[in-house]
C-alpha cells in the first residue's frame, strides 16, 4: 500500500488503472466523421449481419437502409458502440424480432376466443 502511494507521488503509471482506461476509451470511442464511422470494420460487419437476415425467404433490410439509419443516429450518440446498439434495437423492432408480435397475436386470439364464447352463451 505504501508502494502504491509512493508511485502515485512519483508520477509512475498504475498497473491497475491501465486496463480500466483502455476499456472506457474503447467504449467511448467515436469516429471523427460519419464516413470514417461507416468505413470502420465494426460498422461494415454490423451492416453485413443485418442485411443478411431474412424472413420468409426475403431479405428484411437493405444495406442502404441500414446505412441511412446509422447516418441518422451517428450525430446523436456519444460513441460508435452506442450508435450500433441503438440501431440494433430499432432494427429488431422493425423486423418484428423483439417477440412482441407473437405475444400480441396470442393475446388477440385469447380475447377473440372469450368474445366468441360470450356470444355463444348469450345465443347471439
Offer a quick outline of the entry:
By secondary structure, the chain is mainly alpha-helical. The protein has helices at residues 2-10, 17-27, 34-39, 41-51, 63-73, 80-94, 100-122; strands spanning 54-55, 58-59. Helices cover 69% and strands 3% of the residues.
What features would you describe in this structure?
- Helix 5 packs across helix 6 (80-94).
- The protein has one domain (2-122).
- The chain is mostly helical and 124 residues long.
- The mean pLDDT is 78.
- The protein is built from 7 helices and 2 strands, in the order H-H-H-H-E-E-H-H-H.
- The chain starts with a helix and ends with a helix.
- The radius of gyration is 25 Å and the shape is elongated.
- It has a two-stranded antiparallel sheet.
- The longest helix is centred in the last third of the chain and has 23 residues, at 100-122.
Query: Are there runs of 5+ residues with pLDDT below 50, and where?
Result: none
What order do the SSEs take from the amino end to the carboxyl end, as H and E?
Answer: HHHHEEHHH
Give the N-to-C terminal Cα separation.
83 Å
What is the arithmetic mean of pLDDT? 78
